[in-house]
Structure to design on (866 residues):
């Protein structure tokens, strides 16, 4: 006796909403995590979730995030019959030759499409979401990416029945009684490989040439009113079908026969590998990156030191003028694009901002002073973290936006939402290479193009024809990473690896393990229950880290970088040619005072400072005395203080302050009347408007500041004095902006929800779906089904009150309609607990909480079916 199973196979879903309803919570969470726009705001039920998943904007965003093979799978489904069995889809992608790579990669690609709700249905009835089909379906105005034209049935839709019968006869098929069967017979002929091969064997060579030009698309061509004989041969047999006067199309079935069944010329189931262009020792890479990191810190400090007393003015439209950017580039001794990068990096790190005053200028923020006190490794980590997460792109400076306006540094229009993701992805690809390997740039760009083939420019972008925005972002990311010290000699450094949270690679123990590791990513593996072999696919593109994860990664990068940086020095080497050599980075007090006492002459492995009369006078103006300077140099020099340098300090100090300038409008005071006479006799003093008031005092028409500069230009060393006769210390006042926060990155769509939000959202959606689909008890002339379109139940006030009171006694749940104080309507499944004072207190299954509803806002109530 054979026992039949009592379990029935679940019915196939008839809509996307039903397919989503059959998913478990983990599957719904994966959908919302991959398409976070579906949860903003949280949909009320699964029907609304399915509707939102089919909207054009959401589908376009989802298609843009597919890799090339997943997109090719969706394109193949767009040209397949609906619904399409798995075997037909596999044939469209793998062709008659059944490419094993395609067979292995198709299940994971189809899984991605199912996870993102772009495809639904079982393997025997696969359906592409209608909006995706409309976006990918071929038409004369929007050719298909596959290059396939319409089917025979679609192309002959407007053709006369007599003409269809003529095509059947010319193709060697018997006549039929109606156009539908005639089109079916013609389709069967084109789908039959053997009969099609026989038909095409009789085709003239010129006819086969025409087909070869149309086979890979575009499938449309132009013909004259009286076509040539080889074109007439194709038209008579339906191998070309007219779509409009003078226009013909190659039917999809004919093209697939000529393509050996493939929808794409070159399926790409396997991502292109990232090749190594050069190999270096990991120690050399880390040392080079550490040197670049030190240079980055020095450059940012030099930039903000140059803007110490208030930087360039802010343009009316925002940003830095071209002239100021050129001046900054000269001051930093770098090209203008590199200067724009350092300016934008300081801005992204929150070290630089506009002061917001009437005469708005750029200046350092209070955070800059805190940043300068950190250890060098932590300062670098702050810069690297800001670079990795910012969406501002310095490479766009000097270009033009969509409205043909010039893009300026620190100005608007430099945000690109994909910039942070591209930087993170480029570094992640570098992390997969062996340690010390520098990538081939072309292979990196090819890999990124495979991962996001549909990424299109945004409205704010102006991109030259044929230029891929992600490719530009990737090139800039590689060059900026080298400038910043994230990479060294093109290879990812150990701090850079930690910055993105990538684990340190473990070297294979022997050659056999190395060969196994190299082939592991493409070795076929079979799991229990696998219907088809599945390749171990390359891990998907990692999303940028969260703020907390990125902060932790930056801290780890700083700890790795710290031992690679040289210890700050507390000494310099003084030389007889009035220079000082700093063989490494200097400690903060020494670097600050030496920067006032001397001018930087050159940088590199060692920094060379030069002492000049002007630099010494600058130190004296800052309040230092000659004795202070002698003691400072003696304490911090590993070599004796050269005699020329000691003479220079004494000579400048002896002359410093002999002339005193105050505000009268301005005056000059000196105990040596001969010096004043010398000034009056000098022709260069004519513009100062000087006249003698007393043997030791001159009056001037210019202000004290102009008088100081004028006399210094004549070779004197005057000092300013206060109204009480004391020397004023001319220390530059550090101009700071009010507290400013770093610019927030522009998100590339809604953020990925965390687990807590996903759990709450799924619970709310399922509860709302219960309220929307729960059957209610049928009344007179009522089916008991929920109202079409999600309508609310309608009952009178007395019936509503009586039903709710009865439910309190019986403990039954009810379905109610409710309108809140703002007029928003909703429906709920509740279990009433108490009714008093015009309110019903109930457990709301929809919100999973106990709530109180005013009865006058309840539109109606219905009992639920058992």
């Amino acid at each position: 006796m054979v026992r039949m199973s009592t379990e029935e196979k679940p019915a196939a879903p008839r809509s996307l909403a039903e397919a989503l309803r059959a998913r478990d919570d983990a599957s719904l969470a994966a959908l919302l995590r991959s398409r976070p726009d579906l949860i903003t705001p949280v949909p009320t039920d699964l029907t609304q979730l399915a509707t939102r998943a089919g909207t054009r904007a959401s589908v376009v965003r989802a298609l843009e995030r597919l890799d090339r093979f997943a997109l090719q799978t969706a394109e193949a489904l767009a040209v397949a019959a609906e619904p399409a069995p798995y075997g037909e889809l596999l044939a469209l992608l793998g062709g008659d030759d059944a490419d094993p790579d395609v067979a292995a990669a198709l299940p994971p690609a189809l899984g991605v499409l199912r996870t993102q709700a772009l495809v639904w249905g079982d393997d025997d009835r696969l359906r592409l979401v209608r909006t995706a089909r409309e976006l990918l379906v071929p038409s004369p105005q929007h050719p298909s990416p596959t290059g396939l034209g319409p089917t025979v049935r679609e192309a002959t839709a407007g053709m006369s029945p007599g003409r269809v019968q003529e095509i059947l006869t010319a193709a060697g098929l018997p006549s039929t009684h109606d156009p539908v069967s005639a089109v079916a017979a013609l389709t069967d002929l084109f789908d039959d490989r053997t009969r099609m091969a026989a038909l095409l064997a009789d085709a003239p060579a010129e006819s086969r040439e025409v087909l070869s030009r149309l086979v890979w698309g575009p499938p449309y061509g132009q013909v004259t009113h009286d076509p040539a004989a080889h074109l007439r041969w194709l038209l008579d047999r339906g191998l070309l079908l007219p779509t409009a006067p003078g226009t013909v199309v190659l039917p999809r079935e004919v093209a697939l026969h000529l393509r050996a069944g493939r929808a794409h010329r070159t399926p790409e189931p396997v991502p292109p590998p990232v090749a190594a262009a050069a190999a270096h020792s990991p120690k050399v890479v880390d040392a080079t990156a550490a040197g670049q990191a030190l240079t980055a810190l020095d450059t940012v400090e030099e930039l903000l030191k140059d803007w110490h007393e208030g930087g360039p003015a802010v343009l009316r439209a925002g940003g830095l003028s071209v002239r100021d950017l050129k001046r900054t580039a000269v001051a930093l001794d770098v090209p203008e694009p590199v200067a724009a990068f350092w300016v934008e990096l300081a801005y992204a790190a929150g070290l630089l901002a506009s002061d917001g005053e009437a005469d708005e200028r750029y200046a350092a923020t209070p955070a800059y002073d805190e940043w300068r006190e950190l250890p060098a490794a932590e300062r670098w980590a702050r810069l690297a973290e800001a670079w990795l997460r910012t969406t501002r792109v310095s490479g766009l400076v000097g270009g033009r936006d969509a409205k043909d306006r010039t893009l300026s540094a620190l100005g608007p229009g430099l945000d690109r939402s994909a910039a942070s993701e591209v930087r993170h992805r480029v570094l992640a690809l570098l992390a997969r290479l062996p340690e010390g390997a520098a990538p081939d740039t072309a292979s990196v760009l090819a890999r990124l193009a495979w991962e996001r083939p549909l990424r299109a420019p945004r409205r704010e972008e102006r991109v030259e024809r044929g230029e891929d925005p992600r490719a530009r972002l990737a090139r800039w990311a590689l060059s900026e990473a080298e400038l910043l010290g994230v990479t060294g000699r093109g290879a990812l450094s150990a701090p850079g690896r930690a910055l993105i949270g990538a684990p340190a690679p473990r070297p294979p123990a022997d050659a056999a393990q190395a060969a196994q590791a190299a082939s592991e990513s493409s070795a076929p593996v079979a799991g229990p229950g696998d219907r088809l072999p599945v390749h171990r696919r390359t891990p998907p593109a990692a999303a940028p880290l969260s703020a907390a994860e990125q902060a932790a990664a930056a801290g780890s990068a700083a700890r790795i970088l710290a031992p690679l940086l040289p210890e700050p020095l507390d000494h310099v080497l003084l030389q007889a040619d009035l220079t000082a050599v700093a063989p490494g980075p200097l400690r903060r007090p020494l670097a600050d005072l030496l920067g006032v006492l001397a001018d930087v002459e050159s940088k590199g492995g060692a920094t060379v400072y030069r002492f000049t009369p002007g630099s010494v006078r600058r130190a004296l103006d800052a309040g230092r005395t000659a004795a202070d300077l002698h003691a400072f140099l003696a304490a911090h020099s590993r070599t004796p203080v050269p005699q020329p340098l000691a003479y220079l300090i004494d000579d400048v100090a002896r002359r410093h302050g002999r002339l005193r300038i105050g505000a009268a409008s301005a005056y000059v005071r000196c105990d040596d009347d001969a010096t004043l006479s010398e000034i009056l006799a000098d022709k260069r003093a004519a513009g100062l408007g000087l006249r003698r008031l007393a043997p030791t005092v001159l009056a001037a028409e210019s202000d004290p500041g102009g008088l100081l500069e004028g006399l210094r230009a004549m070779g004197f060393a005057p000092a300013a004095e206060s109204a009480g006769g004391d020397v004023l210390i001319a220390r530059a006042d550090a101009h700071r902006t009010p507290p400013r926060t770093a610019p927030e990155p522009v998100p590339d769509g809604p953020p990925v929800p965390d687990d807590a939000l996903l759990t709450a959202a799924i619970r709310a959606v399922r509860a709302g779906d219960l309220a929307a689909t729960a059957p209610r008890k049928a009344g007179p002339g009522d089916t008991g089904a929920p109202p079409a379109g999600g309508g609310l139940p309608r009952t009178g006030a007395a019936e509503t009150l009586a039903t709710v009171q009865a439910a309190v006694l019986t403990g039954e749940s009810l379905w109610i309609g409710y309108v809140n104080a703002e007029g928003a309507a909703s429906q709920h499944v509740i279990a009433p607990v108490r009714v008093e004072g015009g309110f019903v207190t109930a457990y709301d299954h929809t919100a999973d909480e106990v709530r109180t509803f005013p009865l006058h806002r309840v539109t109606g109530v219905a009992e639920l079916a058992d």
About this structure: The first helix runs from residue 16 to 21. DSSP finds 34 helices and 27 strands in the chain. Confidence is low (pLDDT under 50) at residues 1-7, 508-542, 780-784.
